[in-house]
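CORE FACILITY INTAKE
Project code: CF-77B
Contact: R.S. (postdoc)
Sample description: multi-component assembly, two entities in total
Requested service: structural model of the whole complex
Turnaround: standard
Below are the sequence entries exactly as provided by the requester. Do not edit them.
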Amino acid sequence: MNERRVKAEIMDETAIDRALSRIAHEIVERNKGTHTLVLVGIRTGGVHLAGRLAEKIRKHEGADVPLGEMDVTLYRDDFGRRAISSKLKPTILPESIEEHDVVLVDDVLFTGRTIRAALDHLIDYGRPRSIQLAVLIDRGHRDLPIRADYVGKNVPTALKERVEVKLREEGGDDRVVILEEEGAS
Amino acid sequence: MSFHGPHLLGIRDLSKTDIGEILDAAESFRAVLDRDIKKVPTLRGKTIVNLFFEPSTRTRTSFELAGKRLSADVVNFSQSTSSVVKGETLIDTARTIEAMPAEILVIRHPHSGAAELLARHVSASVINAGDGMHEHPTQALLDLYTVREALRRVEGLRIAIVGDVLHSRVARSDILAFKTMGASVVVCGPPTLLPPGLAEWGADVTVRIEEALRDADVVIALRMQMERQNAGFVPSLNEYAVLYGLTRERIDRARPGLLVMHPGPINRGVEIAPEVADSAASLILNQVANGMAVRMAVLYLVAGGASA
């Protein structure tokens, strides 16, 4: 792989925290409370973000929202076409998602293919009342007709650039950066 | 890809890391099997052919369902219905099937080395579902998975393998698999049914079952192969049952918490007493359920799901 260098930092710890606080409020507002809510993080970044959203909702509303985590590898449309970079992990969802409002949480929304896989995966567990999508970054370049309901920050990017969300749960500081290939103009 | 090539021919080819990856992947498939919809779309459009040149119901069914639950098309090809009876060679049969085309061939064959021979002559992935007296890797993997699930570890455990080790490909694969994962293995059986050179495999050997069970955490009883009972290896099945059968009394005298496994099909009252096979210590039905998850993992990984 080509060397990549940081082109710009687009969010720091404070900005990420404020964005998540706003999204947590928006989720509760739109769903008129927490009693039907389920948060499902998409591995890996989404799992940490879903955990933080649940924590914020617990602080503000005093309610525990069921949390799940999902690995969409088995539902991807590019199986066998590219080297799979991480090991398969089990998907763990709350007891039931039937008649619940499920909020999928991911770090970056890009082509939309991961979300397509997540939708198919989720529906194999039952029929939620609604499925919503929360992302920290929407970087554009969709291949599919998919949009997010809650967005931390819209970031216009070039196709060749990469957006990396670093979270303290993985070690290091919270920050979002745009990476570009070394030597790119 | 961490396998040596796109095939699964034997445990001998696998490193500790490879086996760990298969067992970890199997956990994800176990979760799929616990859902109402026990199916994922991963291998849509791929074709798996079960080439069975030996009677087998459970292994073939397990592979068939594993393939179907990955959304692959699965075809069963058995000796009695095939052109093998018309004199076609194994390689010609396999090449014909591959040209249909098929991406994965699962083979069970009475001759040791058949899977490897096939792998050399076809470009499809080959999975060994038991070849002669050589290996039965998916059985060993599901045994590992079952032990890991029950006791949360494999390393440091003592595994006893009791019975007809000489003719058992399960025993060979199990010894390699458990040794690779850091367990110690003791094999036990009548002298006529213990092959020479077991010590070179790293296994302890005893002809006394009490000794084999004494420190064991898990005992794997091998199937007494009825078709061999007239070949003079044991005086009678009754005598075998008396000397080597897993009875309630023997289990009670062994270490508390000893778990019992068997690759099936079981001969009740021969290598295992009915009350032991049906007891809380028996993991035999867990083995069946886990076998499906492990085979899904193996199919998934040879089809391209191995991590880079």
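Facility notes:
- Chain A touches chain B through 20 residues (CB under 8 Å).
- The radius of gyration of chain A is 16 Å.
Invoice: internal transfer
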